[in-house]
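User: quick one, fold this
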Amino acid sequence: MLPLEWKDDLTAFLSEKQVQTGEYQPHPLGNSGYVTVYPQSEEEISSILRYANSHGKKVCIVGGGTKRGFGGQVECVDILLSLANYSGIVEHAAADMTVTVKSGTVFQKLQDYLAEYRQKVAIDPVWPQYATIGGVIAANDSGPKRLGYGSARDSVIGLRTVYPDGTVIRSGGKVVKNVAGYDMNKLFIGAMGTLGVISEITLKLRPLPKYESLVLLSFPSGNLEEVRSFAIQFLDSMMEPVCFELLSPSLSERLIGQRAYTLAMAFEDVKSAVHYQEEFVKRLQPPNTAIRILPQEEAKSFWQTFYTIGPNGAMPYESVGNEIEAAVKIGVVNLDVIHIIRESDLLQEICHVHIEAHGGLGHGLCQVYMKGESESIIAAIERLRMAATGLGGYAIVKHLPFSLRKRVDVWGEKPSYFFLLDGIKRKIDPNRILNNQRFVGGI
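Assistant:
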């Protein structure tokens, strides 16, 4: 029997349609709840957390569900708080280039709305048609265009957050030039929802580019010293790509039909400036390499495919035989990305897993996607982590079935500043009701 004797307490301030119960079926990715609630206002979010905090109930937060396999050592909690019905634009100051939006808003819907005003949020998360803006901010998500855009943290001006005791606080402001006091926003961005439920987000906007293109430079010889030499020359130039990403041969084959290490360079500006940078790449192009330039519409199509190559926790979980999916985020010094992408390529033969990987030579972040049997996946993750730490970097597992998350340290070793993170958690959420064991060191 499910522990649902407290269901009536929830329906005291939510309608029957907003509280869903049923016989619990374990989900392979975990992070589930015996009862799912769908608040439609900030007041209802506050009431749910206040009830959970006073009654000792654990709460797990979900937006679009794309990150369901990211962290979490608890398979099922008392309450799954879904923000699916808490969405929409609160305020759009087009002239000031800012927008305030509810956290359950699907990222692509937000971008589609802003496109009517020739504006956008300068973030490029994976699976934008499912991911919510709240989830993107809570995970501080970003994609290859982080080089030109910055991280999710860089787009946030202000937040409204509901603490675990139901208190609503506001951090930051609603204007771009806001420098008063401590930057409290950074406390919640990237905290994986362990400190509070982000209810509203104010973001600074950018105008849509007049034109964009994508230059793909492939190295069929596999000589990574040529890649390094080209990267150094290009990054030392005056060019301003929004993306300078190295694709593994397997990923390059999937995206453009050419199995070779490939550099993807994206440019966004007025048309003449974009073409000038394309010509610069042609002049710098090493011998025995292949170049392909995708104009605007083809570039957009490429990125639409690119952002859906990794696993998605929102999709129905299906495994083929014993094959599972995993995703690992690796951070190293910029050009050390080359070593990580090479190691990922070699691991396909060593660990007998299929791997597709990419990494930014301008920002040092790599994403590695794997498919294979459980033991092979675990072995590959361990080898990647050794490679990353050997370079002075880190490796975080962003997607893995719950059963394997019990065996793999998702976040790696506790950092030296862990006592600060734990102290903040104890102060804000002393009962540890919110996204318990979802963050670094089991916070």
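User: anything notable?
Assistant: Residues 374-390 form the longest helix (17 residues).
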